[in-house]
């Protein structure tokens, strides 16, 4: 374990161990896997202690899960930990699962999807991204984003640069007429994000719907995959490989849900993940987007 000050373990008195975090900082290597299924684990290296689980449901774990701490490569020490030791707190969440490819017959696009959990019972928001296969590295390009949201979400956001500050934010919620509201925003500090004109979202009628438990929207974003902060170098979301994305969640609806510039509360949960853009590439992207736009011409 390459950490200046490692967490310690202490006996639980029942043949296992509980986690005791002596300090935060350093690189802590943690393996978590479902009890009885050693294949369902993910290895994560973080600058602080976070919880990562595959498959992304905690209610199947009953009262405890198996955890392994890797003090050096190739060695895992399993021990039991109560879920109470990993209860969610402010600005904490369980990680999204690995990216998976999802084909949506309605929109005719294949998306790379990550499920970002915001509740320990397995509730999460599915973030899907589709792009063109013709895009080159270090270039700006349009992307189609499709999001599936449980009805209990007040508002949520996707950070295209993987952090709250100095990158395009797609903030969204369900409006007073039950229609999706997408608000393009930017934050220079850890304060309420303000409107951002550098990225625009075009909501598609196709791929936007709701039922008794979830609602979904599909939109074209222009300006989400490149930006510059404080006059610095242009940053890009690369069209291949992995890109760090992030999300935030709040159970509280905006004060004026019908307005895209409405004030929003501080988020309760946030997390980030490595989103696979290789599986997001579509050879028919331009044709599919043009069909979704209808009479409005798409300029790729």
Automatic annotation (TrEMBL):
Sequence ranges assigned to domain Cellobiose dehydrogenase-like cytochrome in this UniProt record: 103-286
Top-level division of the source organism's lineage: Eukaryota
InterPro entries assigned: Cellobiose_DH-like_cyt
Protein name listed in UniProt: WGS project CABT00000000 data, contig 2.6
């Amino acid at each position: 374990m390459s950490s200046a000050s490692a967490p310690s373990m202490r006996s639980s008195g029942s043949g296992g161990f509980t986690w005791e975090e002596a300090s935060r900082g350093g690189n802590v290597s943690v393996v978590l896997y479902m009890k009885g299924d050693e294949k369902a684990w993910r290895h994560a290296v973080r600058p602080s202690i976070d919880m990562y689980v595959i498959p992304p449901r905690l209610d199947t774990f009953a009262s405890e899960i198996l955890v392994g701490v890797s003090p050096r490569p190739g060695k895992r020490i399993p021990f039991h930990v109560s879920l109470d030791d990993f209860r969610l707190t402010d600005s904490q969440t369980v990680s999204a699962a690995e990216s998976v490819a999802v084909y949506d017959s309605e929109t005719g696009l294949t998306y790379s999807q990550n499920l970002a959990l915001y509740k320990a019972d397995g509730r999460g928001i599915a973030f899907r991204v589709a792009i063109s296969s013709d895009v080159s590295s270090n270039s700006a390009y349009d992307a189609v984003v499709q999001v599936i949201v449980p009805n209990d979400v007040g508002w949520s956001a996707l950070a295209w640069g993987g952090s709250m500050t100095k990158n395009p934010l797609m903030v969204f919620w369900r409006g007073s007429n039950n229609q999706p509201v997408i608000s393009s925003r930017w934050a220079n500090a850890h304060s309420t994000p303000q409107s951002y004109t550098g990225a625009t979202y075009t909501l598609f009628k196709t791929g936007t719907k709701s039922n008794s438990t979830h609602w979904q929207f599909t939109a074209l974003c222009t300006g989400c995959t490149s930006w510059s902060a404080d006059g610095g170098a242009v940053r890009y979301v690369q069209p291949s490989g992995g890109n760090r994305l992030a999300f935030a969640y709040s159970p509280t609806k905006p004060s004026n849900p019908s307005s895209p510039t409405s004030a929003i509360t501080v988020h309760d949960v946030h997390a980030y993940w490595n989103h696979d853009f290789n599986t997001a590439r579509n050879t028919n992207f331009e044709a599919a987007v043009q069909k979704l736009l209808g009479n409005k011409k798409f300029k790729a």
